[in-house]
Design a protein that fits this description.
Number of domains: 1
Radius of gyration: 18 Å
Strand order of the largest sheet: 1-2-4-3-5-6-9-10
CATH architecture: 3-Layer(aba) Sandwich
CATH class: Alpha Beta
Shape: globular
Length: 296
């Protein structure tokens, strides 16, 4: 199906999880027969429409752009077992999505959690070329700073209800200032897809509050094991890799970012001043960096 550069089309993919088939939603931009497919995957409590501005850019350059809503977010189904909200399972979901797309390779743009999923997909071994041709990790790496996890845990999954879009935008901005400066119009555009009608009136966040359960169940010991596995996956990569970092990020430290430029695929690092965790790739200068890397 062909879409315009300004409008995505919503699709659903049936995915087997346990003994149930659930629907994974994804937004498609551009021409299905395009020579290059870019997959953009969002952060922990976000959804695929975060990438509208970048997708519009890339579709206008002849790319097919696919922006999934990871299970439990946006238009995708919620899992009956919340412990299924974990990165290894998401990697398997994304492999199923790539099979639906019927392409040998994709470029990958992953913000925070979406970057960890991309790291997992990119490190998979098989008889052919890697599934990922070029990888963009947006403000995430194998080592995640504990302070950022503590900050996220303070709001993730809490029951909230907003009377209006404007109230929701203000409340979300209060916990999202690390995303960097945005105009009111830009922030409202990022907020709208994050909301769903609350049964008692108004709005609530468009994600399953139970995604907080496995997040909060991670112990320091499990985190250490996970970090070692992520570094091993990172060191195995061979493709060109662009690492984006908010200069004020509390999740990706300068030391980790520097290490990622010196080992494994030796990432190309680009920092954005005045931004924390994580750049939203809405501002023209941020989109230009990603576009230049992917289309080089």
């Amino acid at each position: 199906m062909t879409t315009t550069a300004s409008d995505p089309v919503l699709h659903h993919l049936p995915v087997l999880r346990g003994h149930q088939v659930l629907r994974l939603a994804y937004w498609a931009w551009g021409e299905a027969r395009a020579e290059r497919t870019v997959v953009c995957v969002h952060g922990l409590s976000r959804q695929g429409r975060d990438f509208d501005e970048l997708a519009r850019d890339l579709a206008g350059q002849g790319c097919r752009v696919i922006c999934p809503d990871v299970f439990g977010r946006g238009r995708s189904d919620w899992l009956p077992d919340p412990m299924g909200y974990n990165v290894p399972a998401y990697v398997a979901d994304m492999v199923a999505l790539l099979a639906r797309l019927d392409v040998a390779q994709v470029d990958w743009v992953g913000t925070s959690m979406g970057g960890l999923i991309g790291l997992g997909v990119a490190s998979l071994q098989g008889p052919g070329a890697p599934l990922v041709r070029r990888l963009v990790l947006n403000d995430v790496g194998p080592t995640i700073e504990p302070a950022s996890l503590e900050r996220i845990g303070q709001y993730l999954g809490r029951p909230v209800r907003f009377a209006s879009l404007e109230e929701a935008a203000d409340a979300m901005w209060a916990i999202s200032q690390g995303f960097g400066p945005h105009s009111r119009e830009q922030w409202l555009a990022l907020t709208r897809p994050m909301l769903v009608a609350h049964p008692d009136g108004g709005f609530k966040p468009h994600y399953d509050p139970a995604i907080a359960l496995p997040f909060k169940a991670v112990t320091p010991e499990l985190a250490k094991v996970g970090e070692a596995m992520l570094w091993a996956a990172y060191d195995s990569l061979k493709m060109p890799l662009l690492l984006l970092r908010g200069a004020e990020s509390d999740l990706l430290s300068p030391a980790t970012a520097q290490a990622m430029t010196e080992r494994g695929p030796r990432a190309r690092l680009h920092e954005f001043a005045g931004v924390g965790h994580a750049p939203m790739l809405v501002q023209p200068e941020q989109r230009a960096v990603v576009r230049g890397f992917l289309l080089a």
